[in-house]
Amino acid sequence: MNQKLELSYQNARALHQKIDHELPGITPWSCSIIRMPNINDEFELFMRDPVECIQELWANPAYLDYLTYAPEHHFADEGKMERMYDELMSGDWSWEAQVRGFHFSSFFVSVFKTLQALLPDGATLVPVILSSDKTQLCQF
Questions:
Q1: Contacts of 60 (CB under 8 A, 6+ apart)
Q2: SS3 sequence, 45-86?
Q3: Residue 93 phi/psi, 5° resolution?
Q4: DSSP code, position 8
Q5: Of 138, 114, 132, nearest in space to 15 by CA
Q6: How buried is 96 (Cβ within 10 angstroms: 0-12 exposed, 13-18 middle, 19+ buried)?
Q7: CA 29, 66, 125, 86: dihedral to nearest 10 degrees?
Q8: 82-110 pLDDT per residue, tens
């Protein structure tokens, strides 16, 4: 079957080795051993550095057409009276945080000023949703 499909690997182990060693720009996995108090067992926690993952995604030209680098305003009419919202970068929060105009309550103004003080000129917001699950990467 492998010969008919002309695969570059012969079995699952060879495929995993290709993934681990031949694919460019893959953020490496790290493993930590977790020891729980009162439990006589160890758990392996596999993780990737989220900052490195974000850098990898943003540096990949395959995603160029799918990333938004600046806030956008979209309108439903030619007179620009009716705003349309779809993604985070079309919302007021993104616009206010990045474009540096303030029209919110004093609490949000202070949050935006703090955020903007941390951003160098020319920086863009990179919204991130982090998640975790108990997916088993392999079975032993």
A1: 25
A2: EEEECHHHHHHHHHHCHHHHHHCCCCCCCEECCCCCCCEECC
A3: -60, -50
A4: S
A5: 138
A6: buried
A7: -120
A8: 999 988 888 887 877 776 554 555 666 67
